Amino acid sequence: AAHQETHGFQTEVKQLLNLMIHSLYSNKEIFLRELVSNAADAADKLRFKALENDALYEDDGDLNVKISVNKDAGTITIADNGIGMSRDEVIANLGTIAKSGTKDFFNKLSGDSAKDSQLIGQFGVGFYSAFIVADKVTVRTRAAGENADQGVEWISDGEGEFTVADINKPGRGTEIVLHLREEEKEFADSWRLRSIVNKYSDHISIPVQMWKDEVAEQEGPDGEKIPAQPGQWESVNKATALWTRDKSDISDEEYKEFYKHVSHDFADPLSWAHNKVEGKTEYTSLLYIPSKAPFDMWNREQSHGLKLYVQRVFIMDDAEQFMPTYLRFVKGLLDSNDLPLNVSREILQDNKITQALRQGCTKRVLQMLEKMAKNDKEKYQSFWNEFGNVLKEGPAEDFSNREKIAGLLRFSSTHSETDAQTVSLADYIERMKEGQNKIYYVTADSYQAAKTSPHLEIFRKKGIEVLLLGERIDEWLMSHLTEFNEKSFQSIAKGNLDLGDLDDEETKKAQEEAEKQIEGVLERAKTALGDKVEDVKFTHRLTDSPACIVADEHGMSTQMVKLMQAAGQ
Ligand code: ADP
Ligand code: MG
């Protein structure tokens, strides 16, 4: 072939291929889901580009995917008339993994394939899943709007290299031929493929078609003639966009498969919310909470956001404008009736409709979480363990929903004495002592350090619960939380600790007596410490330790000082 080159796969692709073949042996059929999903994406992308340039349809505007089988040759072909790829795109898309941070992710894998295969769930397996069933894959593609001679052929056995060559391809789009492995020949069967499409790809919004052989003229039961039917392409899926359908007609399985398609995730979602909103702003949202945090959740540069449609037409992936950053783990889509079809990221940036949609979507997610916390504690706990630290960014970012978010937070506390974060503020308030009017907490470098803080002594003695905060983000969180349910928060390591009505008269008297007895000690400590301290005071908050350091009521806490130092301030 013309201009043939051989390329090596990126190291991470080799690792992924290896891992996949070992971990997905019980779930081989998903290769078809992935390839059909890509074909549907390619159709979406073409439709979007054609909004500006109708000529890209090349007189072939019926976008679809065609699946065919050659039993004798042991091949399956998946062909679409979507956007197609140029030579450079083929090399980049089918030879590397685009996500940044992938290298680190793979370096962290243990080499124990059982363990590692769990991790692969966070990773869309995508195109490379073709090699689960095929020992050779041929991709023939031509980008929309290019001449027939701009076709590209990509061939690989999935072992480490692939070739690319120029070909002639009159039809626009991408055709993928899977040469089935000897032991996977069973997939070369129309009925088998049909049932796989029904199972995984029914929700795909363009027709997924398979060839139906001609049927000869027949005689019916009453001797009537049933005319012959020519062979034809027949749709095997519903071919309507899932989110436009009625909720009551959509099964959980369909919602789950749709999630995998839009999120490129491999695992089931934890929960979802599907809503049609009519009135001043009209839109449909389908929002999912993943079950596992992606490996790159802390990389703020990593793409996130919703898939945006306008009047059913795909507009863009990863539209970040519709979700606040503290909900960046949410996946799904938004279909707006109000935004213009030619909307761009710039237009979205500063737009009234965007704001309304963002508020609406935020509200939906918080509601979904509230419901989950109320109705399925175990599920909520698993959400919290994965995403709790992201949600903690909420009170600082989203003033208007501060109280709602606070209600969703979970903490460790002296009540449970485990590092599991299970205590809600409502739980805490319910257990508050008679006369207690504050929510007490302590922040430290770790749960362990918080738990052993000397500041806790008096609280332990009095049986007052204290929240134990040991995560990095906690200090930041607490600096933005002032009250919950009309109870203010109080760090037990800050300033003069006033236990208010919790101290009775008798105790106070005894304390004053005690202070008098050792008056001179204060002066001596002050002289000895000199400039190193602001002040030295008596305290009654300690029961076992002789002394402790406290931060000024209005100044930064010791934790915050450390955070600032770590950030290079
Ligand atoms: P993902 O779908 O998550 O992006 P895949 O591994 O499934 O990852 O596909 C990698 C990329 O290859 C896609 O993002 C797309 O750019 C390209 N691609 C795959 N299949 C097709 C296709 N049928 N038509 C056009 N581009 C495709
Ligand atoms: Mg894909």
TrEMBL record:
Protein family per UniProt: Belongs to the heat shock protein 90 family.
Domain of life: Bacteria
Record's function text: Molecular chaperone. Has ATPase activity.
Protein name (record): Chaperone protein HtpG
Assembly, per entry: Homodimer.
Record carries keyword Nucleotide-binding: yes
Location relative to the cell: Cytoplasm
Protein encoded by which gene: htpG
SUPFAM superfamilies in the record: ATPase domain of HSP90 chaperone/DNA topoisomerase II/histidine kinase, HSP90 C-terminal domain, Ribosomal protein S5 domain 2-like
Major localization class: cytoplasm
HAMAP family named in the record: HSP90 (MF_00505)
Pfam families listed in its UniProt record: HATPase_c_3, HSP90
